[in-house]
Amino acid sequence: MNAMNTATFLSQLQQQAQAQKSLVQSEFLTLDQLELNFKLHATGWSILECLEHLNRYSRFYLPHVEQAISSAPASLTPQPVCYSWVGKKSLDVANPNGVKKHKTLKHMNPHNSQLTSEVLEEFLQHQNTLLQLLEAAAKVDVNKKAIPIEFFRLLKMRIGEALEFLVMHQQRHLQQALRVKNQILQPISLVV
Asked: How much of the chain, in percent, has pLDDT values that exceed 90?
């Protein structure tokens, strides 16, 4: 969370979001239903559950971000990106390099859901929307507090914080899905 101007900030988020879209296309679209639903252990998530969790967040946040961008004041020159206490805390929780596990809210937890590959298609649609919003955000003040936090809607994140949160949160769970995929590909050792 270094202070940078909005143009650089949004450009980096666009690159990361595009890479996430490409990763899902190259790593998960070719897997069959059994592989997509494979779990390392009973309490773990499958690849589809990781992506469904992200879809649930996108269903909540993307419409709020879109509304905030459409009503935010125009910004003709890049400004420094600012962070609020709430934004910093949200980004800390979503940080893909964080080792601390966080309990998922019940309605955001897809554990033991009946999921199909449609989850992947929905994720890619959300990713296209996110990329469009990142482009649109370049024309507005991303420091405007406007995005309610999903679990406590009275608290608000800034537009830039919410966009960064979405990208970081996705990275965290795409890494989790990749770990599951890597276990699928491990040869099974038989003890004789």
From this structure: 54
